[in-house]
Write a structure and sequence with these properties.
By secondary structure, the chain is α/β, with parallel strands linked by helices. The protein has a domain at 7-14 and 69-111 and 235-448: Rossmann fold. Helix content is 40%, strand content 16%. It is built from 18 helices and 15 strands. The chain has helices at residues 44-47, 53-59, 70-76, 88-94, 115-127, 141-153, 163-168, 170-178, 192-200, 208-220, 234-253, 269-283, 301-304, 347-354, 365-379, 388-404, 422-429, 440-448, and strands at 7-8, 18-20, 65-67, 84-86, 99-104, 132-137, 156-162, 182-186, 225-227, 260-264, 290-296, 306-311, 320-325, 359-363, 409-414. The protein has a seven-stranded mixed sheet, sandwiched between helices. It has a four-stranded parallel sheet with strand order 8-7-6-9, with helices on both faces. Helix 12 links the parallel strand 10 (260-264) and strand 11 (290-296). The longest helix is centred in the middle third of the chain and has 20 residues, at 234-253. It is globular. It binds pyridoxal-5'-phosphate.
């Protein structure tokens, strides 16, 4: 009986009560964000125009655990705890002795892990009396999540959506509007940053970097408005640790210990959310999994970016963050994993990578879609294009196990479903998808435009 179990669920009573902060458990702290003018570490007063106090405190918290407010847990209960599945059909299809587990975050109202942080972010803003939030969105996942969370706490939501996605994914826009949000294609003529980008290129496809500039500019200009970011920052990674904490309990139910933990990385939040609780166990010597981040070859910030202080946005409005970066003026190739097209990487994850605690690799999109289709035909769930990167690495490892006979335990984050991404699947199935290798000249050129290369 139990040997054939495929779905590991937790009762509502096991919903985590606290988030896990990895920082105090690390052998050294990550380098602080710097003010671009003074090059001194930014203080709470620098961030106050953009973020509410509670989130600023979480960003720099020395505490290993932070209590999840009851109001946030109440909303989490709409879809959490999320299921952990053993991919038995996929294992059989691959003829592998590996045990493949996936933590499925696609059961949230918007279909991804993003509401895990959108909900607390809106809650803390609302509690401080903030009436309106601005943000950017690439593929539309983050914008949908913030729009949903704003509807939960009656806060207005204004989203700058990267123009290519605005055009390619109209239903993500409709979704945000259904939740009551206002959506602009970015670059827009509503902000200084947007007008500048349009002057440079009237047909600009947009980028996350430009959209962030627009949303930040708008929030900084209004007293009752703050800005919200869906990845990259410490407090975002913190909120996502509910994924890993639940997965840990669920794997224990299955009587397994992971050998490999693999996730996709755009800004790093779903990967960190799954991996950090396991990294805590690894640092404490209680288990020793390999932890692997997978990114697109078209946007290889970990594997080919420089570890340096750079801006988080294109216009240079954010603090300088030490991270793996392809340069803040990076305009990505139009790959379909929109959520992985950011020029930088979470500074905390970048630091963890520099410490040698995690590994990273890049994979091309056709291989990823192939893995997505294999997964869908075996397991039924159509993955978002982003987690197909993790699935490609999972399949590669499972096939290696088929050769060596090793029954390795692989855990991956299936961080979203692909129901709004069928245009991308269409193109893959029609044989129209091409792979992009990020050119070395561009890696070099970006280095010359770092705000302060000596840092
Ligand atoms: C946003 C998104 C990503 C990329 O963001 P991370 O912060 O790296 O997790 C990946 N997958 C899905 C489904 C997303 O919505």
């Amino acid at each position: 009986m139990t040997s054939e179990q495929t779905k590991y669920t937790l009762p509502e009573s096991e919903l985590p009560t606290r988030w896990y902060n990895l920082v105090p458990d690390l052998p050294s702290p990550p380098p602080p964000p710097l003010h671009p003018a003074t090059l001194q570490p930014v203080g709470p007063e620098d961030l106050a125009p953009l973020f509410p106090t509670d989130l600023i405190l979480q960003e720099v918290s020395p505490d290993p655990y932070i209590d999840i407010p009851e109001e946030v847990r109440d909303v989490y209960r709409l879809w959490r705890p999320t299921p952990l599945f053993r991919a038995r059909r996929l294992e059989r299809a691959l003829g592998t002795p590996a045990h493949i587990y996936y933590k499925y975050e696609g059961v949230s109202p918007v279909g991804s892990h993003k509401p895990n942080t959108a909900v607390p972010q809106v809650f803390y803003n609302a509690r401080q009396g903030i009436r309106r939030l601005t943000t950017e969105t690439g593929a539309g996942q983050w914008g949908s999540a913030l729009a949903f969370a704003c509807a939960m706490f009656d806060v207005a939501c204004e989203v700058w959506m990267v123009r290519v996605s605005y055009e390619q994914k109209p239903y993500r826009r409709s979704m945000m509007q259904t939740y009551g949000a206002t959506v602009h294609a970015s670059p827009s003529d509503l902000t200084e940053s947007g007008r500048k980008a349009l002057a440079n290129d009237p047909d600009s496809p947009g980028s996350l970097g430009i959209a962030i500039s627009e949303a930040v500019e708008e929030a900084a200009a209004h007293e009752d408005t703050r800005y919200s970011l869906g990845s990259v920052l410490n407090h975002v990674l913190l909120h996502q640790t509910v994924i890993g904490e639940e997965a840990m309990s669920q794997l224990a139910l299955a009587g397994e210990v992971p050998d490999l933990i693999v996730g996709c990385t755009g800004g790093g939040s779903n990967f960190a959310g799954l991996a950090f609780p396991f990294l805590r166990e690894k640092l404490a010597g209680r288990m020793d999994p390999r932890i692997l981040a997978v990114e697109p070859t078209a946007c290889p910030s970990f594997t080919r970016g420089t570890y340096a202080y750079d801006f988080g946005d294109t216009a240079g409005l954010t603090p300088l963050m030490k991270m793996h970066t392809l340069g803040h003026d990076f305009i990505p190739d139009p790959i379909h994993a929109g959520g992985l097209r950011y020029h930088g990487m979470s500074p905390l994850l970048s630091h963890v990578y520099e410490l040698g605690l995690i590994e990273a690799e890049a994979r091309p999109q056709t291989e990823c879609f192939e893995a997505g289709v294999t997964f869908a035909r075996a397991e039924g769930i159509i993955p978002a294009p982003e987690p197909t990167h993790a699935l490609a690495a999972t399949l590669a490892e499972a096939r290696r196990c088929a050769e060596t006979g090793e029954p390795k335990v692989i855990l991956t984050a299936l961080c979203g479903h692909g129901h709004f991404d069928m245009t991308a699947y269409d193109r893959y199935l029609a044989g129209d998808l091409v792979d992009y290798e990020y050119p070395s000249e561009k890696v070099q050129a970006a280095l010359t435009r770092l705000p302060n290369p000596e840092l």
